[in-house]
């Protein structure tokens, strides 16, 4: 017969655990919760101010992506592609390794897939067509611009 394991040691009231040390247990019923919490930690680590235009654009674009998916203007697989593009847009896009691991494609192929996902459909309302076109143009502009680079150490004085 199996015995119950010993209960975990209780911490004394004098040494409470800080709320930031709380660990989340992966839950198959709510996989989005884990990614949202991880995204919050990543955003906090980047040092982007809460009221910055980049963060506002990111939130607005992710809401637009969710709207397009909810009215079935883009498929769930296209939604994953577009959301990935939005999340990496402030950084000039993801590197080749990240794209290959996530989607199995190179950067140029990813941009073609992104354009295909955001192509307006004949069944889309005019407002959705405009939203798709605007979001696609913003993403392509962000992914095609090179991210800002720090000055090199060998630059002239």
TrEMBL record:
Residues 1-19 have a biased composition (Pro residues). Residues 1-26 are annotated as: Disordered. It comes from the Bacteria. This is DUF3263 domain-containing protein.
């Amino acid at each position: 017969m199996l015995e119950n394991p010993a209960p975990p040691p209780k911490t004394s009231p004098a040494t409470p655990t800080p709320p930031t040390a709380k660990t989340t247990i992966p839950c198959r019923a709510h996989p989005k919760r884990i990614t949202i919490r991880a995204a919050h930690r990543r955003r906090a680590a980047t040092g982007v101010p809460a009221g910055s235009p980049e963060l506002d654009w990111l939130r607005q674009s992710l809401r637009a992506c969710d709207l397009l998916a909810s009215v079935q203007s883009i498929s769930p697989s296209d939604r994953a592609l577009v959301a990935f593009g939005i999340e990496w847009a402030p950084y000039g896009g993801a590197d080749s390794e990240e794209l290959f691991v996530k989607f199995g494609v190179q950067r140029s192929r990813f941009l073609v897939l992104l354009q295909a996902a955001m192509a307006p459909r004949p069944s889309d309302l005019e407002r959705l067509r405009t939203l798709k076109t605007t979001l696609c143009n913003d993403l392509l502009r962000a992914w095609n611009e090179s991210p800002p680079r720090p000055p090199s150490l060998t630059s002239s004085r």
